[in-house]
């Protein structure tokens, strides 16, 4: 099983935004990534982290089961189908995620406390600091 710890953040909401993710196989980090996405909301950054991880993984791990861990309860609830997505911009991102999910086996989303997502959060802040010159 592949585990993906994903995070997104914005300094201001909206504000300068970035994503980060850490991919683990059998508990070991096998890939990670981050990037600056411009001015966006926290939610857009969180969804972008999922999208970017799925894009990276589709060539390396097709048809495998994935579990995403995010510290955004809203994003987890929306991607798990518990909450409806009302915002049209977010709906577009969810549609892209659903399309990418078809390249894998089962894809699950689980909420974790912020403290358990520190590696992905650090990558978000590195991307923001690098872009903003901090």
What does this structure look like?
The protein is an alpha/beta fold. It has one domain (2-132): 2-Layer Sandwich (Nucleotidyltransferase, domain 5). The chain has four helices and five strands.
Structural class: alpha/beta
The name of the CATH topology is Nucleotidyltransferase, domain 5
- What would CATH call the class? Alpha Beta
Side by side, the strands of the main sheet go 3-2-1-4-5
Rg from Cα: 14 Å
Number of strands: 5
- SSE arrangement, N to C: EEEHEHHEH
Percentage of helical residues? 40-55%
Low-pLDDT regions: none
Q: In DSSP terms, counting alpha (H) and pi (I) runs of 4 or more, how many helices?
A: 4
Largest beta-sheet details: 5 strands, mixed
Distance between the termini: 37 Å
GO molecular function: nucleic acid binding; RNA-DNA hybrid ribonuclease activity
InterPro entries: RNaseH-like_sf, RNaseH_domain, RNaseH_sf
Organism: Candidatus Curtissbacteria bacterium GW2011_GWA2_41_24
Pfam family, one: RVT_3
Quick overview of this protein structure:
The protein is α/β, with parallel strands linked by helices and 134 residues long.
């Amino acid at each position: 099983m592949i585990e993906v710890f994903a995070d997104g953040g914005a300094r201001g909401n909206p504000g300068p935004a970035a994503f980060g993710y850490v991919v683990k196989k059998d508990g070991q980090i096998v890939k990670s990534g981050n990037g600056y996405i411009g001015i966006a909301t926290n939610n857009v950054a969180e969804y972008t982290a999922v999208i970017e991880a799925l894009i990276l993984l589709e060539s390396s791990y097709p048809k495998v089961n994935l579990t995403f861990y995010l510290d955004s309860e809203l994003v987890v609830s929306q991607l798990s189908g518990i909450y409806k997505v009302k915002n049209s911009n977010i709906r577009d991102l969810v549609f892209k995620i659903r399309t990418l999910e078809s390249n894998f086996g089962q894809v699950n989303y689980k909420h974790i406390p912020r403290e358990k997502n520190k590696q992905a959060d650090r990558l978000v802040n590195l991307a923001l600091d690098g872009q903003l010159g901090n």
